[in-house]
Specification:
- The complex is a heterotrimer of chains A (566), B (353) and C (409).
- Chain A has 4 domains: 1-146; 151-227, no CATH class; 254-531, ABC transporter involved in vitamin B12 uptake, BtuC (Orthogonal Bundle); 539-566, no CATH class.
- In chain A, 74% of the residues lie in helices and 2% in strands.
- Chain A has helices at residues 3-8, 11-27, 30-35, 46-65, 71-98, 110-116, 123-146, 149-167, 169-178, 183-189, 197-227, 230-282, 291-305, 316-335, 343-362, 367-370, 392-414, 417-427, 429-434, 439-465, 475-488, 493-509, 517-531, 540-550, 556-562, and strands at residues 38-40, 44-45, 382-384, 387-389.
- In chain A, helix 14 packs antiparallel against helix 20 (439-465) and helix 18 (417-427) crosses helix 20 (439-465).
- The two termini of chain A are 25 Å apart.
- Chain B is built from 14 helices and 4 strands.
- In chain B, the strands form 2 sheets. A two-stranded antiparallel ribbon of chain B has the order 1-4. A two-stranded antiparallel ribbon of chain B has the order 2-3.
- In chain B, helix 11 crosses helix 12 and helix 12 (290-312) packs across helix 13 (324-338).
- The longest helix of chain B is centred in the first third of the chain and has 36 residues, at 2-37.
- Chain B is globular, with a radius of gyration of 22 Å.
- In chain B, 58% of the residues are buried.
- Helix content of chain C is 41%, strand content 19%.
- Chain C contains 13 helices and 17 strands.
- Chain C has helices spanning 2-22, 56-72, 93-104, 118-130, 164-178, 192-207, 226-233, 246-256, 276-282, 300-314, 323-340, 352-360, 392-396, and strands at 34-37, 43-49, 76-77, 80-88, 109-114, 134-137, 157-159, 183-188, 211-217, 239-241, 266-269, 290-294, 342-344, 347-351, 365-367, 370-372, 385-389.
- In chain C, strand 8, helix 6 (192-207) and strand 9 (211-217) form a beta-alpha-beta unit.
- The radius of gyration of chain C is 24 Å and the shape is elongated.
- The chains are: A mainly alpha (566), B mainly alpha (353), C alpha/beta (409).
- The interface between A and B is large, with 65 and 64 residues.
């Protein structure tokens, strides 16, 4: 066989890659761990769903990449991929059942192999079932690819929604049961473990039908809105804005305790992200020690309000200005020594600064002032009159106010003279200086503003948690915030919100997948950057820049597609 | 205009130099009072230095990977710490097998070489896959984008290895041939420390000679100077980049086994801290510069080992070793204040960093 | 405009549901509410432990303890299956808050096991108790959590791990009374646990007439301990107390003999490293060193059975020291549920306050870590802490020593 024919028929190659993925998923224990949870009660478990979706994805890729596009070839490629994948899985079981792999691979347990063989005692029967399942998956994904786009999209959306609903059952079910009239619906859709069969079918039909309807009719609706006259269009925009505001206000009560908690965490990261966005996104100064200011804000509030340290007993509101001022001062103090450093030298120096702050608050030497390893507790809650911001639903409003304030400030700053100076500096320091921009002042202002926002976030964090410990301020926080703003789209303010929702909100929702949470997070980070290097909601100018170099006049959607596939 | 510039820059220069000066005075003062206090004998200091050298050699070897990748791609390969972890963790199972079968005691050299090879092969494999999957598609993207995929890949690899080998600890077997110590007057070196220092030194010299003398090494350097011109000269840039990752991976795999010989424990999270330290070392020496990475690594190891006792003990600060990373990073900032592009990094930084 | 009307209706609906959701009330049988579990429905237990990140082995280990306890019950309680779900508490206050909020928002949760880290328990336990959920921690040791002054928000909190105050003092008494040493040095790793233990040790040691030569600290991720040990050696202590976790304790144990001047020093650690994984980490250098730990020599048979089940289920030995406490935490909860559950045909009702009171009333329950009796502040651990000495034999077998070397009682 020569290379051109394998290029046209990728079933085998993709099958091997997919098979390795399936084997890996099994060996790292995800399949077994997720088998405890049902997606559709008594029908399919989460572990099986994981394997199924991975296999289906790979088989679909095989179908897509087949050339020439004859239906027979496409089906054959998809089925080949499916069979090859499951064959590798069967091989894993065979090896696992003959030699004890557990000395090395801790999750290669008999229970896993048993589950992979569909709980058949006999290896032959189980393996045959497995291969059959692989062929079936390949066949159906091949068919799916051959169907008209409308049906395909409806089916895929429906199936994915089912998987998501089943995965997040522990989140959705309590929310539904708390919403009086929806409680019976919730009970009908969800059994104790997973979706009920009837609920799953209904959900699937509803979502698939809805998607099909939207696909068929959506474009006309969209065009109507676009072609609307200026007056009604503005009114529609205003209505949408008011609706959004109203939703933001009632949101925590509608969502219940936990989702509000997630929102507050996202809010903290939005504050942090908006601050870092000024430093990295606007001014182009790579700061990996941003957590330092967050820590300074938290510890200032803690020391000034907690009776445990007992030197001051201020209220939260009295301490807040100090927190922000100290943050700003620290920002300038960090800014001065690193003025001359560029790029990655700056990154590592700031990283060092972050670590120094964490080590100092942890240290025994400063324990009488900063609490050391035992942290500081009993931090004052924010209070307005009789209202105390204690529960997540209440803290939410505090953060909402903070985010609106900070968002407004950075929006105004971006379009100001200073903002343009930052961006000029980001593009080219030397040119900016030649144009008469005072680099020192511009840099220091960027550090100071970013630090102030971060300290504000830290102050709210301390009050929200009620106790601070040095371990909360490690380098991973800095890295996480950086990820938020890059994944959101560097320099873009809505991007910060989207990035925080995606990178902070989602992992919080997935908290119950505990040990596999960060694994999925890491993989998602890579995938997102490969698919959308410009970020989820890029800044307009930035996006133009990125795509100008690759392809002239690319629209966002075309741009994403034009990015080289992984 | 030059005059104008000088007028504008001078206040910040003064502030910077005075921060540097205050830190330097504190260090000198701490050092003086520690020495006057006389808690430590000369023998203690020699011990500190040797401990620091051994630790520093490992940092230096890992820093090689960072610095080489930085040289060709101008990116921080954040996942390099996982490249470092994957090798010795995988090779552990071979080392344990050799130990059980007695090969480690009867043929220590052969079995150690095998363990090294397994570790280096694994690290190379991970490094190459990493480059192929997570970095190559992003060649033209903005600088920070590959940094984020690197961070993502780092998480992913950590938890894949945790899933494969478990979240507990494993410990490398004690190699009886490496037990005991050499004594030379007041100098006392543990045998495995000597091995670590010598092996790391040899590897680094070999690597340096490779990049300076061989054809391949010259191609590598030319790619790091200018990718487009190299491509025009007939150098396969993609292959050279893969090659860089292979060499960096091999160095990390070797460093991993040396680390495991010295500290015994392997764990899925073991790469994180040495990774950050090695990266710091690379920057300290001037990132992109191979001798700089060696120097930076050794310097960092020495500061961590000697610093807390030397600088802080005399000032009466309790638990000084808790602050060793703070000292290391302060030294880093101090060095960068006076030399903003690292100890040896001048040439490169002006042009590209 | 039809569209605007539709929008208004949608908004009105949203507001209406939001109001309704706040107007819900619990049935008035129990002051904190009653959980009703219908036929075939599971009894839902939640854990909040550190199962990701560098401390993951601690959480994984205690979680396995709970899982084995469930398996020992046959996966069922009062005819209902036991459902275990869990959250990662991340070994910090923010993780503690988020994970407990998640648990608290699920009305089906009967009781919780966790947290691992005291810093997570501090904001977490009150959130659970606000939702009427009692929690039993397998590994929190900070005195604050069961302090008489802790406040009513911790009323639903109990633990099977030992209060640092007990264990740190036992170690100091052992050093002075049994080993007859006069000078000691301590090392902690910046964790709430170790810092507290060494502080209690130092205080008690000085009270008994000893001298502390230095109190050092390292980071849990440090590997090269020789410099800090060299510094300790300049004070010439006879005894080093380092109540830290496996990784760093392993490094110290291995490297202490390589440092000039410390060849003959006594070494002692606490239950945070009293586990098979530590013998892997430290190897033969651990021979002769001491550990304080609960005295479960009286229950050796039960523990051995536990280890066998562990090996069979997970293919390895326990990876951290608190699995037995995890098992006991789950067992206390099961016993309390069995005591207070009201049967109504196939349905059972569990009052939240009643469950809490039953947990606090636990008396003489035979667990793996001793006879568990809860005091009125939620300390349930058997107060008998003993000191063990590591022998070449038990380290080779990767097992904890069977019989105590010294008992203070």
């Amino acid at each position: 066989m020569d290379t051109t024919s394998t290029k046209e028929f990728p079933g085998l190659r993709l099958g091997v890659i997919g098979g390795v993925c399936l084997v890996l998923l099994s060996l790292i224990g995800m399949v077994h761990a997720f088998n405890q949870r049902e997606i559709v009660s008594e029908v399919i478990s989460m572990g099986q769903t994981l394997l199924l979706f991975t296999a289906a994805f790979v088989a679909y890729m095989a179908a897509v990449r087949t050339r020439p596009k004859a239906p027979g070839r496409i089906l054959a490629a998809a089925v080949t991929a499916g069979v090859v994948m499951t064959a590798l899985l069967a091989l894993l079981v065979l090896i696992g059942q003959t030699v004890n792999m557990r000395q090395v691979f801790i999750n290669a347990s008999p229970a896993l192999f048993n589950a992979l063989l569909f709980y058949q005692e006999n290896f032959g029967a189980g393996a045959a079932l497995l291969l059959l399942a692989g062929a079936a998956v390949g066949f159906f994904t091949g068919l799916l690819h051959l169907m008209p786009a409308l049906v395909r999209r409806a089916l895929i959306t429906g199936l994915c929604s089912l998987a998501v609903a089943g995965m997040l059952q522990d989140l959705i079910a309590p929310v539904l049961s708390a919403w009086g009239p929806f409680a019976p619906i919730g009970e009908w859709i969800f059994s104790g473990n997973g979706l009920s069969v009837s609920g799953a079918l209904t959900l699937f039909i509803l979502i698939a039908g809805g998607t099909a309807a939207w696909t068929a009719k959506g474009d006309t609706v969209r065009h109507k809105v676009i072609r609307m006259e200026a007056g009604p269009k503005r009114r529609l925009k205003l209505a949408a804005l008011m609706a959004a505001a109203l939703v933001l206000i009632v949101l925590p009560h509608a969502l219940g305790l936990f989702l509000s908690e997630v929102l507050t965490i996202v809010g903290l990261y939005i504050l942090l992200g908006l601050g870092l966005n000024i430093v990295v996104g606007f001014a182009g100064l790579l700061d990996l020690g941003y957590v330092a200011f967050f820590a300074i804000g938290s510890y200032t509030v803690a020391i000034l309000t907690s009776p445990e340290i007992g030197r001051f007993t201020m209220t939260f509101w009295q301490a807040l200005p100090f927190a922000i001022i100290f943050g700003v001062i620290a920002g300038v103090m960090l800014g001065v020594p690193v003025l001359k450093m560029r790029g990655d030298y700056l990154a590592i120096a700031t990283l060092g600064f972050g670590e120094i702050i964490r080590i100092l608050v942890l240290s025994d030497a400063l324990r009488p002032w900063l609490g050391g390893a035992q942290g500081i507790g009993k931090i004052a809650k924010a209070q307005i009159g009789e209202m105390e911001f204690a529960t997540p639903q209440e803290v939410y409003y505090l953060l909402l106010a903070g985010c609106i304030l900070v968002g407004f400030i950075s929006w105004r700053l971006r379009d100001s003279r200073l903002g343009r100076a930052w961006m000029a500096m980001r593009e080219d320091e030397d040119v900016a200086q030649a144009m008469g921009i005072n680099l020192v002042a511009t840099k220091l202002l960027a550090f100071a503003t970013g630090a102030g926002f971060s300290a504000l976030s830290g102050a709210i964090f301390a009050s929200k948690i009620g106790s601070v410990y040095p371990h909360s301020f490690n380098v991973m926080i800095s890295i996480n915030i950086l990820c938020v703003i890059i994944v959101g789209g560097m320099g873009s303010m809505p991007g910060v919100v989207v990035g925080a929702l995606a990178l902070v909100g989602l992992p919080e929702l997935l908290r119950e997948f505990a040990e596999y949470r960060l694994l999925v997070y890491g993989a998602a980070l890579v995938a997102m950057m490969l698919l959308r290097p410009e970020g989820l909601w890029p800044e307009a100018t930035h996006q133009r820049e990125l795509h100008d170099s690759t392809e002239p006049a690319a629209t966002p959607a075309a741009g994403a597609a034009a990015a080289p596939p992984g | 205009m030059v005059k104008n510039l000088r007028e504008r820059m001078s206040p910040t220069d003064i502030v910077m130099w005075s921060i540097g000066g205050i830190l330097a005075i504190l260090i000198v003062w701490g050092t003086a009072s520690t020495i006057i206090k006389g808690t430590y004998s000369a023998r203690h200091w020699i011990d500190f230095v040797i401990f620091g050298l051994a630790q520093g050699s490992i940092y230096a070897l890992i820093a090689m990977g960072y610095t080489m990748v930085y040289g060709v791609l101008r990116m921080i390969n954040f996942a390099h710490s996982e490249v470092f972890m994957s090798g010795p963790y995988t090779a552990y199972f071979f080392a344990a097998y050799f130990h059980r079968s007695g090969l480690l005691d009867s043929h220590p050299v052969i079995s150690l070489v095998l363990v090294f090879l397994v570790s280096m092969a694994t690290s190379v494999m991970i490094a190459v896959l990493l480059e192929r999957i997570a970095y190559r598609p992003l060649r033209g993207a903005p600088r920070l984008v590959p940094l984020i995929t690197a961070i993502g890949a780092s998480f992913f690899l950590q938890y894949v290895f945790r899933g494969l080998y478990g979240s507990g600890f494993q410990a490398y077997p004690v190699i009886s041939a490496l037990e005991g110590q050499f004594t030379l007057g007041p100098i006392r070196v543990l045998k495995f420390q000597a091995l670590v220092i010598v092996a790391a030194g040899l590897l680094m010299v070999a690597l340096y000679q490779f990049t300076q003398r061989t054809r391949l090494g010259k191609a590598l350097r030319s790619v790091s100077e200018d990718k487009e011109a190299s491509a025009l000269m007939g150098i396969d840039v993609d292959r050279m980049i893969s090659m860089t990752f292979m060499i960096g991976g091999a160095a990390a795999g070797a460093a991993g086994v040396l680390y495991a010989i010295m500290f015994k424990q392997v764990h899925f999270f073991m790469g994180f801290i040495p990774g950050i330290k090695a990266f710091t070392a690379a920057v300290l020496g001037g990132i992109g510069n191979i001798p700089g990475a060696m120097l930076g690594g050794i310097f960092l190891g020495l500061v961590e080992s000697v610093g807390p006792s030397l600088f802080l003990d005399g000032l009466g600060i309790v638990a000084p070793y808790q602050l060793k990373d703070a000292i290391a990073f302060t030294m880093l900032v101090l060095v960068l204040i006076f030399r903003p592009s690292g100890i040896l990094g001048e040439r490169l930084a002006v042009k590209k960093a | 405009m039809k569209r605007r009307f539709a929008l208004a209706v949608a908004l009105a609906l949203v507001v209406a549901f939001a109001l309704m959701s706040t107007a819900q009330a619990a049935p008035p049988k129990d002051p904190l509410g009653v959980i009703t579990i219908k036929k075939g429905q599971p009894i839902h237990i939640a854990y909040w432990m550190v199962v990701a990140g560098p401390d993951a082995s601690l959480g994984e280990d205690t979680k396995r303890g709970v899982e084995i306890a469930i398996a020992d019950k046959g996966g069922k309680l009062l005819g209902h299956p036991i459902k275990l779900t869990g959250q990662d508490e991340g070994c910090g206050p923010e993780g503690g808050q988020a994970s407990t909020t998640k648990i608290a928002s699920d009305p089906t949760v009967v009781a919780a096991v966790g947290s691992n880290c005291s810093s997570a328990a501090r904001p977490g336990a009150p959130i659970l108790w606000k939702a009427g959920i009692s929690t039993v921690s397998p590994s929190n040791t900070a005195p604050y959590l069961t302090d008489p002054k802790r406040g009513p928000e911790y009323d639903g909190y109990l633990r099977t791990a030992h209060n640092d105050k007990v264990q740190g003092a036992v170690a100091a008494q052992f050093a002075i009374k049994k080993m007859g040493v006069k000078t000691a040095a301590t090392i902690h790793d910046g964790s709430v646990y170790a810092e507290q233990l060494q502080a209690v040790f130092a205080e008690e040691f000085k009270k008994l007439g000893g001298t502390i030569t230095s109190q050092e600290a390292v980071a849990p991720t440090d590997t090269d301990m020789r410099p800090v040990l060299t510094k300790i050696a300049t004070g010439k202590p006879q005894f080093i107390y380092y109540p830290i976790f496996i990784a760093a304790a392993g490094h110290i144990t291995r490297q202490v003999k390589e440092v000039a001047g410390l060849e003959k020093v006594y070494l002692m650690s606490a239950d945070g490293s009293f586990s098979p994984d530590f013998y892997k980490a430290a190897g033969e250098t651990a021979v002769g060193m001491f550990h304080s730990s609960p005295d479960f020599s009286a229950f050796a048979a039960g523990y051995k059975g536990f280890l066998d089940k562990h090996q069979k289920k997970y293919g390895e030995k326990p990876i951290a020291p608190f699995h037995a406490h995890g098992y006991d935490a789950a067992m206390i909860i099961f016993a309390a549920i069995e005591k207070v559950a009201v049967k109504d045909g196939d349905t059972i009702h569990i009052g939240r306050k009643a469950l809490r009171d039953a947990l606090y009333a636990t008396k003489g329950l035979q667990g793996l870590t001793g006879n568990l009796t809860c005091d009125k502040f939620g300390d349930c651990a058997d107060p008998r802490i003993a000191v063990y000495q590591q022998t070449a034999e038990n380290i080779k077998k990767l097992e904890n020593p069977q019989t105590p070397f010294w008992k203070p009682y």
